[in-house]
Each structure stands twice: as structure tokens, then as C-alpha cells.
């Protein structure tokens, strides 16, 4: 507790206060946009910047991770509730609270049983594709409101196509508002990234809307926004609703775990700070419970908010706490002007958020270096757009696992040979490959399990079938950390095959846990007493003797 806040360095207080004010200026319009993505009343976006943000600041270990509303989890929530409750309705708000409670419960359970390792099951490749797909979906779903035309139901692409078909019937005033907001945000961003372009655009839109009475000109406006702090309320705990929301909650749990951990680790590495993943899981879990009881929606560790604070000079959780104080003032004194905010202005802010999530440079980098992984990222993005965000999360996890299995199923294995300078080099496993006449030192490139054990057997058979007879076969285990039951049976059969050909099987680079496994499987007992060598070089020297 308080690891992200203490110690407070006096020289750093001004930087943290400035970081908090910057986060408030940039994050408030963003939070309103995320509430819109989630289908929630816009004021609930501000609620995410109160108790949930403050709870993580107190309980988390990261000094830099900022927790609040997030586009990916908001999109998952909106997709999950689309068929069960009208956006912005009391029923929608109740279910959103229940979803936050379930996500928080899963995070706390993960902390209890130490499941922080699950973050490693979402690869960077898949995250780039997932967030790109989320960005496309978010941006596409704002076009109808930016044009001032009726929104169509259905998939993202169907809604976008319907909006574009109605382009001749677009409201001129609404389109002008959208263009003005986009030009303001992008123009100020080009001048200086730190300028709160979104905030200035939203404030300007409110001023113009009120002064010119845009509502009378056919521009839809937000309407009354309740003032005051959120009330503490217990989420409705219906068994049927909880069962229906468990799948989306698990999707949000995975995204929160992956995104928050990746962001926190990146900043900890940048500033050479210690990080406690379990403490951060506790903070994220309680933050989502706090969201559930304050009438808002699920929160996540935000890379964009964390970067806002960092670029402004914030270096501790004092910055988010400062933001919380600013949001309290806004909720108590400044919600009335929000009633005049054109919906098109908010839709444009959300549209630009979505565009920023489309990681074209990241996709290009993947394509340049790993074409197979680019296909995985592209399929993930397409699944999010075509099938939905929740289905995209499931596919992202499956794609990460399949990508891992693809590498371990067909590892880079080789026959080791000494070069003229005395260093080991690699040959492809083939019939003519020999370390020396009569000796094969074969290195398998992955742990052995049921799916790749046949590859080992095939390589061994190929190598020993060569014209040059083999007297010793050394299995170098430098890359083998584990052998499952199926692979152990294959090893036993291979040993019998080698013995039948009068070939001695020896092993090198066997780590202690692997040796214990081989002992339990009974493989060690079938080998010669001196069949284990610390290195392949020792096995070579023993062969010479």
C-alpha cells in the first residue's frame, strides 16, 4: 500500500501537480468519450476518475500507471450489453456495474492465486492487432453522429455503410461542428502535443452551441448532466445477469491484465523501479469494485493517461490524486455547461481516439520482420471488426497460444559441429550430418511435449540412417526445460531403437528439474551410469576417450 505514492520527494511535487492538472485537462473529454463508447451516461466517465483512480493510486505498486476508463474495455462492455439494455438506460448502468464487479472479482481472485503470469499469454503482436481492430470499430461507429444522420443497428461495417449511404442527407450544421472540432484537435496537436486540444475543442463547442443556439439549428446536444458526486450503490446481483456477463467480464479481465501489466512494466523498466504485480492486481481489482459501487463502468490501466502524466513531469501517484481533486470541482460546479455540448463534438473526439488506436506503424513493423505474425495480427483486427470486440479477445488469446505452439511444434533443431576455430556451429538434421565420424550431437530446440515429440523421433531416425554408422548419439538438452508423459514414452522408444542398432544414447546440458523428471519416468535407469554430461563438449571429450 502507498508504494506508488511514497516517498514523496519535495522537488518532484510541482511536477506531479502539473501532471495531475494536465491529465485532468486531457482526460476529462476523453473520459466523456469512453462513457459514450460504453453506452453509459457521459457523467459516469467522470466518475471513473474519482474513487477508482484514487483506489489504485493508494493500493498499487506502480508509480506511473494511471487507472481509468479505457476504450478497449468500454467497447467490450458496449458489445456485451447491446442486446440486453438500451444505452444510457438505468438497466444498462446496473449491468455495467455488475460487469465491473465481476471483472474486479476476477482480478482479486487472480491476486489470491497468483495468476499474474497470465499476462504472458497475450503476445505483443496480438495486442497490436486487437487494439487496431478496436480503433477501427470505435471510429466507424461515430460517423453517423458526426454526420447527424440516424444510426443503424447491426455490425460495425453495416452501421458505417448505412451512415455513408445517408451522406446526401447529412446535417450541414452538424458536419460543420464535427469538422471544427477535428481541425481544432489536430491543429493544436501539431503545434504542441501537450496542448489540451480535445478540452479546448469541447469547451469551444459548448460556447458556440450556447451562443448560437445550435440545438435550434438541428444539432443534437447532450442535455442535462447531473451534478454532484456519485452515490455509493450496491450493484444488482442477479444470478441470471451474472452468468450472462461472466464471459464479457473474463474478456475484460484478460485485457486489463495484459494492458495494465505491460504499461506498468514499461515504466518500471524506464525508471529502474521495482514493481509488485500482485499489489497492482489488488489495486486494479479494488478499483473495479469501486467503479461498481459508484455507478460507473469497468476501469483499466491506461497507456495514454500514463503517458499524459509522464510527459508533463509526473513521477508518482500524487498526479492522479491531483486529477481526482480537479474532477471533484468539475462535478460540483461545472456540469451545467455540458448540457449544451453537441453530440457531434463528442463523437468527433471519440472518432479521433479510435483513429489513434489504429497502430499502422506497429502493423508495418510486424510485416517487415515477421510476416506470419503479421497475419495473426491482421486476423485478430479483422475478427474484432467483423465479429465483435468480445469475440476478438477470445480469438486474440487463441491466436497467441497457436502462435506459441507453432514455434514449439516445429522448433529449430540441429546437429552440432565444431568449427575450425573450436566453436560449435549448427547443421540441419539430415542423414549425412555428423559431429564427428561415429558421433552425433543433436540439439532439440524446445521443450518436449505431445505435439512435437514426433519431430524428435523423425529427426533421430533421419540422422542415424546415414551411410556413416553412428556409435554415440548425444541428445543436447540446452533448450529442453520440460518433458511431458507422451514425450517421455517417445524417448523410451527412441532409446530402445538406438540400443537395437548398438548406438549409445547420452545426454548433455540436462538441468536439475529435467533430470528429476527423467528419473521419475524411469528413463535415467535405462541409460548407462555415465550417460549424463554437463556440456556437449564434455560428451565429445568422453567419446574421444
Largest sheet: spatial strand order: 4-3-5-6-7-8
Q: State Rg.
A: 29 Å
Q: In percent terms, what proportion of residues is strand?
A: 5-15%
Estimate the global geometry from the Cα principal axes: elongated
Mean pLDDT: 88
- How many distinct folded domains? 2
Number of helices: 23
- N-end to C-end Cα span: 62 Å
The poorly predicted ranges are none
Tell me about this structure.
- It contains 23 helices and eight strands.
- It has helices at 13-37, 43-47, 51-59, 71-81, 90-112, 124-140, 143-147, 156-165, 172-191, 197-212, 239-270, 277-293, 303-311, 318-333, 343-357, 360-369, 371-386, 389-409, 453-464, 485-500, 512-521, 523-526, 536-544, and strands spanning 66-68, 300-302, 414-418, 424-427, 439-443, 472-476, 504-508, 532-533.
- Helix 1 runs antiparallel to helix 13 (303-311), helix 5 crosses helix 11 and helix 6 runs parallel beside helix 17 (371-386).
- The protein is elongated.
Ordered list of secondary-structure elements with their pairings:
Elements: H1 13-37, H2 43-47, H3 51-59, E1 66-68, H4 71-81, H5 90-112, H6 124-140, H7 143-147, H8 156-165, H9 172-191, H10 197-212, H11 239-270, H12 277-293, E2 300-302, H13 303-311, H14 318-333, H15 343-357, H16 360-369, H17 371-386, H18 389-409, E3 414-418, E4 424-427, E5 439-443, H19 453-464, E6 472-476, H20 485-500, E7 504-508, H21 512-521, H22 523-526, E8 532-533, H23 536-544
Helix pairs in contact: 1-10, 1-13, 1-14, 1-15, 3-12, 3-14, 4-11, 5-11, 5-12, 6-15, 6-16, 6-17, 6-18, 9-10, 9-15, 16-17, 17-18, 19-20
